[in-house]
Amino acid sequence: MKYFDFNATSPLSSVAEEVWISSNQEYWQNPSGPYIGSARAKNRLEGLREQMASILETKTENIIFNSGATEGNNTLINYCAKNSKSDARILISNIEHPSVIKAAEVTFGRKVDFIPVSAAGVIETPNLLPLIKNGNYSLISVMAANNETGIIQPWREILEMCNENNIPYHCDASQWIGKLPPKNLGKCDFLTGCGHKFGGPKGVGFLKISECFANFKSFYGGEQESGHRGGTENLPAIAAMIAALEGKLLNSEIIKANQELWKNEFLDILLNEVPGVKIIGKGVNQLWNTASIILPKHDNIRWVMRLDKLGFAISTGSACASGREGPSHVLKAMGYTFDEIKRTVRISGGSDTSRKAWHELGEAFKRVWKDLNMRSSSLNKARIISI
Amino acid sequence: MKYFDFNATSPLSSVAEEVWISSNQEYWQNPSGPYIGSARAKNRLEGLREQMASILETKTENIIFNSGATEGNNTLINYCAKNSKSDARILISNIEHPSVIKAAEVTFGRKVDFIPVSAAGVIETPNLLPLIKNGNYSLISVMAANNETGIIQPWREILEMCNENNIPYHCDASQWIGKLPPKNLGKCDFLTGCGHKFGGPKGVGFLKISECFANFKSFYGGEQESGHRGGTENLPAIAAMIAALEGKLLNSEIIKANQELWKNEFLDILLNEVPGVKIIGKGVNQLWNTASIILPKHDNIRWVMRLDKLGFAISTGSACASGREGPSHVLKAMGYTFDEIKRTVRISGGSDTSRKAWHELGEAFKRVWKDLNMRSSSLNKARIISI
User: In this structure, what CATH number is given to the domain that contains residue A172?
Assistant: First the structure.
């Protein structure tokens, strides 16, 4: 199986596996206990927090470990809604992950404003400044890179605008972290991410908080995570997540250069062999691993199934959006028609994806295109005969 | 190190480690993806849900996997508060875990009523019926067994009363599951538990829900867990948790009989060798693994540190309660004085704890008692001399 759905999840990296196993042997005791084994676990946990803070270039006390980005997005927005003035609003982009959009809509009700996205899939910052200046926002949430299109958002500019206007800025960096250098991301007031997008275990993530919500609470209970989140700390998974992330930060520039080249070679095959194919995100900054493609004909699910049979795992969109959640809100926001959305597939490679695998994926698309066309032309013939 | 703090956390069992590793190899793909690897993961996940439902004797669709009992307690009470009439109240016992008490106090404000506990540490059910009949409760929450004292609560009776009066009943069974047969626990409308208390991984647990909160949502986002909890499912940890639990259900009667005998032998050493020691929970049903002991002299932390040096890990109370959270609310509710609480230790063994280890723990207490007394009598002498 050649796997091209890294934006949905990634296999556990061998370093993460090793660290998880060894942490369960050496540091399994409850960090809040009163004996030496607990003190060692507590020290290790705080060392991990420092390591994470150093990666994100932020203060150690701002890092809260949790179960993942969906928890982070929900608990942050929930806390923000409960602790804002009754007329306060939230401003989010209309291409956020459902865990931001739905959480905002449920907790802020009608007091959610949406920042529109351009046809190219990028938040248009000139539109944003008057909104920020005149709105009454207790939080602005714009992701670092979109999960469906891989299109990179101007989070640095937005952060600056928010800073200048003294409005807390939240950045869901789930798709950025582990793919691009996290430099400056820690300057965002709030930042969410999770381990399984970059070779860490599932069920672990982090939320970077800021002094502006100093009393932030996600779960009440024990006083773990400096009182911000009750519940026994998942040290083995935290250690494994950070080990996986450290691994991804090595050689990240070479990986980016190679993967971008190979992805473009794959896209060239597609453009040559599948006439009428459209590449979403051409001409704008995009994650090196992601391609979002509108195929000229046939429903995306048929392509995905055919490619699956040939040994390639690609997706129709985000894993959350696939299945019963209807057409992608991201592509809709970019102005694509329902018909186009139904023909869109997402391809997302990993840092280890080989040039050969990208090339073979191109060849597989070529083959499926021929097969589907042959099948539809023979069906048409059959129809003509039966008429 | 001889470990006697299983109520705080347990080491990962070897079967859980194996299953976690193999699940990360075989079923690491996102269960919501559209290709065969995802379908296999989805099937495996639903198989695990069936297995958990069968252990708890409840319907498969009632099982939600999450990050642990603190999340379960918080999200349930939060949902309940938001979706109840504005005058609805919550009734909880005053010996609940802080994740129940604090969540209730924050979300229900002044509309929290407390069920008192007897001096013996048991919820008195005769007091409960008039409360239930006359109250306006949207939820009643009483744990199955207390984490600090190990004292078993009359959850079966409370469940029956709640059923008769048509009030949803929530049981935090974190300390029961994996130690005693879960039979009938699945009949509670809501049930919380977590893996790391019985040899499963940290960061994984479950919430059993009921039709009375059919639209229960913990995290908004993807439509995972039948729409009840967004976020990529932590399949490897879920599989490992259930494997650990299945292991604990084997021979549970023999384990209970042996451990109870050995714990009592340990308590006999204590009663003989440390004059004035008081055993909390004598004469009432208690978890086979737990002993809560008031020592005649010296602060509990001194005992814990001395025992730690001799290679025994015991606790001053719950891991959440140890440290900065002040004296145990559980012992306070039972009527113990501040002075008594400061002299209380908790000992909690595991299913593999040997008779020898229990015996050695008794001998260690004997030694610490002598050492502490010798030290304090020599200190007294020193004081007398210096005067």
Answer: 3.40.640.10
Of A36, A223, A308, the CB nearest to B36: A308
Phi and psi, residue B139, nearest 5°: -160, 145
CB contact under 8 A, B35 and A224: no
Please answer yes or no on whether B33 and A322 come within 8 Å at the CB atom: yes
Q: Which residues of B touch A316 (CB under 8 A)?
A: 34
For B:214-233, CB contacts with A below 8 A are 217, 219-224, 230-233
Domain coverage including residue A42: 14-249
| B132 and B149 assigned to the same domain | yes
pTM for the model stands at: 0.96
Residue of chain A minimizing CA distance to B321: A222
CB contact under 8 A, A314 and B196: no
Q: How confident is the model over A361-381, as a mean pLDDT? A: 87
Over the stretch B166-190, which tens digit does the pLDDT of each residue have?
999 999 999 999 999 998 999 999 9
Chain segment A271-326, per-residue pLDDT in tens: 999 999 999 998 999 999 999 999 999 999 999 999 999 999 999 976 654 455 57
Residues A97 and A217 in one domain: yes
CATH number at residue B304: 3.90.1150.10
Given a cut of 90, whether residue B319 has pLDDT beyond it is no
